[in-house]
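U., I forgot to send this yesterday:
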Amino acid sequence: RSGLPVPTLVVHGAEDTLVPTDTSAVLEDAPGVERVVFADFRHEIHNEEGGTAVVDTVTGWIERRLGTQPE
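Result:
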């Protein structure tokens, strides 16, 4: 299985009814891909109550790629 040419973060809400989680599940095991599914979150995961966890996940992932945060 080939991966994507760049490191990729996929975030998804487990309760998303517009784009079901199985659409991103195909990327989960691809090399270079990290997939995070947020339980009880719908489609607009950044706007959910608790959406700061999504922002923290995204910024943490970027910081790890830049080498500014430990794994």
